[in-house]
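Pinned message: reference record for Receptor ligand binding region domain-containing protein
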Amino acid sequence: MNPMLAYLLFGVMLPISFADALNLIFFHTDTSSTASFNFLQQNQALSSHYLYSATNSDELLALFDLLENPKILIDLVDDRVNHYDLSQLCKEYEVIHLVVEDDLNYLTDWTFSGSTSRVNYLESLTILFGYFNWSQGIIFNSNQNTFIKDYLLDFSNSFKNVITEPNSNINDIVGRIAVPLGSTMYYIFGDEAYSSSIQQALIEKKLANAGNGIILGKESYFDPIIAGSLIIAEKNQENTTSKEIYISTAILKIINLIDSSLAADDPYQIKITLEKSCLNRFCQNTFSLVNFINNSKTIVGNFNNTSISLISEIIFPGNTTTPPISTKKTLPISINAGSTNYGQVPSPNVPIYARGTSLAIKWINEGLGILENFQMSLFTYDCGATIYDSTYGYNCFLKDIDKFGLTHVSSYPSGVVLGTLQTFKRLNTTVPIVSAVASSAALSSISTYPWFSRIQVSTIGLSSQTPSLLKALGWRSAAVLYQNETWGISTYLAFQQAIEEEGGITVIKSAIIPPALTRDQISNYSYILQEILDTNARLIIVFMYDDLLGVILEKFYDLGARNGDLIFFSIIAAAVTDIGAKNDTYRYKRIELGCPMMIFQMPVWVGAFGEKIYNGLANDYKTVPPGLSCNYFDSAFLIASSIDFMINRGQDFTDGYKLNQTIRSIKIIGCTGKVAISKGSNDRELDALSIDSNILINNTLEVYHIGIGSPYSTQYLTIANPFFYDIKYTAIKPPDLRNQDLKCPFPDSEIKTFYKGRYLVFGICFFMALSTSIITFFIWKNWWNVKIEDLKEKYEISFEDFIVGATIAIEFFQYLAMGPDLDPINSFLWDIGEALSLNLGNFIKLTNGVFWIVCDAVLGLSAAWIILCITVFYRLDEKYNHIFIFRFLGQLAEFLMPILGNLCFIPFVSILLDVFVCDESIGNRFTDSFLAKDCYQFCWKDSHIVYAILSGIAILIYEPLAVFCRPLWQEFQPVLHVKTLPLFLMVKTIAQIVLIVLNKTVKRAEAATHGFLFLLALLLYVIFIFKYKPYNYPRFSWWQGVSIVGVMWLGFIATISILLNNSGFPWIALVIAGWTIILTIGFYVQKKKYPSLLYKKQGKDTSILFKFAFQVGSKSKVNAHVFNNMKKSSKVEPSSLNDS
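Predicted structure (tokens):
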């Protein structure tokens, strides 16, 4: 063609024809493709060829018609439809069609690409990721590259995909989506604008740090911005910085292949050459791995879809040569948990306590519901276990200053924590510090230590709760010892202030002791300890560290105190177990007085989760885990929960200040219960306190859990196990004052359960119950097997009717006293019941012979009762009416029979049986046992034998007479309208005997069993009542049964509280609620079914009745008239009794 014609047609001067020249036609229609054309036509590598430009199909067809072969069409338009049309046209005109495209499946075989194929690219990615074991991570890809994410998601389901466009709020997406996923690998596939925005977001969210990997796809033909990132570049495209350069390089590679052809003038030969050189018509099949370091690109390796080779070392983000691991992102924290004490004896316990932190990290990484897309790591320092040397500690931390991680868990002693805080301040670190314990009050200040929090209530907080909690446990007085230094003084003052503000126990005496005394030095302060002993206080509250407490215990032992004489209380957790090494010569003294010891501390192993942690530690380490391991667990758990909280909200958890604020603000449920840091301080909020003691097992002191005190809960006290008040496991609380209530002639520590005496009491009581039952049945069968007629008419109520009704009410309280104890209600209902049962031990100190005075009175009244019964049986008052004494005895008998024989039955039998209760002893012989009611009275010798014989005789005579006379009394009452079924009186006697026996035997040995037997006895009793109707007046029968149901309800609640070892206000509420329901039902049924058949006249007979009640034996005409009428109607012949 004429060059001038070409110039006129296309604006391009056709050069003179050369033998090896190619006719290169550039097709471009838009700005982007035109820019590529302008860049290419300036390339000197094409100067030997003819260059033509076409911007539409007409121009292109004209060139196809005018130009001779060989013709090469360079398609610069990035459009698949355009590619398809031009490919078809090239096939028709036998023109080689060159594109930069990764998919040729829809194009003809005359089309060749200067890029790699999509399949080759994806397969090569597989080789690369497989080499580095990258099978997880987050894929960032724009909508134009969805095929990449689809392939990678099929390759590994551990990949996570985030698609977004450059104009989206990428920072927000990375914060809310990418950060919580916890990946260490980030793959970016997109153009320059997209890739740059993602990289900026990763930097801002601190995801481009050491341990992470940044991979940029082959579309990233520009300089990255993250140091250490890796770029996947096609071969010879490593330094490409723009799209124009990329296209130019790709096209020139194909032109060079054509130039090398021996037959460049034949289109078919060119096509064959390209097909041989290009795999599947793709003329690029190899990739370079480019490392962006020092603001420049460095080729570090080559790979394709079959192999990979590295030619130099790779530098990853954070200037590290360690390849990132394609797993969960690592969250590092550190802990000071070695055993070294610089220049001092090592502390092996610290690593044992810190096992809790290790277990927390392990469980979180295995799946605990938090940080599911992350894994935590723990670096352990050994910079001072329990003693902190500032120089050693500083150098120790400085050596591994880069290992602090996100947070640091300090060793537990307050001195180590204070030293660590000062060291971290010198090192200018902004790492939050969490302590598992560290109870010093000095650490509470948030202004002094703003980077510190602790999983522990301060000792001041503990001491302020001590008075009220001890009172709830039944203590009313104590002596106090505290050490003379800042902590001891401040703790005692907080304790004293709590007493002044809220009450609690009474401090009999307080004394201050210098700290850190040795065995030799403590002797100089023996007088102080002697003064404490002289107060007779049993409870000794100590505000001192365990080392001082140890020598205090030894000195108390030297002064004569023994196990059980003193009960020590501490708020230092270590006090219960660390009171003496096993090889210590004087350890036996410490064990003697330091076991049991009571402490209040933060609860451990709380709930099902706490129990799971306990079992986990026990299984992992094959030993009983110490309680402090629970605190250490919560330290790591609080840190992890804080990080998880921030991640889920897209917050920067690597910001130490923000993480510190989060640690202070969140709440968790951990091994120690609810954990939250108190506002305005570094202390844990006080939610509950664990009440613990120690127990000696295999010569090892171990923590023994008693219960939980909840100062801010409606249930203030929850008891799980009984407190043992001595090493013999005595669970009965002794008096607050030693030798004060009982005034025993021997130390309390010598007292032990005398089982032979207990078995003897059991035998005597059960023999009495059996004999009473037989005699009662015999009496009923021969004399009182009679029925009563129902009350059908209305009568005026008499004083005698009042007595029958009052008996029901009084017996209600007597039965309560015979039942299981419910501590919270003892102060009211039990006192009434005990009083009505003549259980005078609660009201009179029955010591030094006082009990015998009471016993003498009961024996005397029993003798009087026998005399009165003889008077009635043989009607001596009638036969010898002219003799005053017999006449008086007759009058007295008729009035006292319902009192002495009915209402006094339970108290009389109880007092007489107390003579046989000798189940405690100071030796192994019967004569070494002493009376439960008076420890000065030894049993089974001297006067006790006399009383035992008299009491036995009194019981054998009193009981049958009482049984026989109970129904007899109503036969002498002409104005008594409410009659009692004799069979009921017989059954009531047996029921009362059973309750008395259970109270004197089973209740003293096993309270829960007593509760069940008590309920069973009353259940049978109430069934009998409702079936046989004990009174001829239905109302009285109904309320007799209702009263027993009320007793059963209280007995049931008391038994449950005993089984659960739990007492508190809720039980009282349940009792009151139950009684309210029972009374409501009682009155409702009474109204519906039982009409009133007794009425009371106003202002007439009441005064007469009361005058009679209180003026028996007077010579007033009124009383004489009433008495004479009663006397006339009460004459019952013996034969008539037999007939009845």
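Pinned by admin. Summary line: The CA atoms of residues 875 and 890 lie 8 Å apart.
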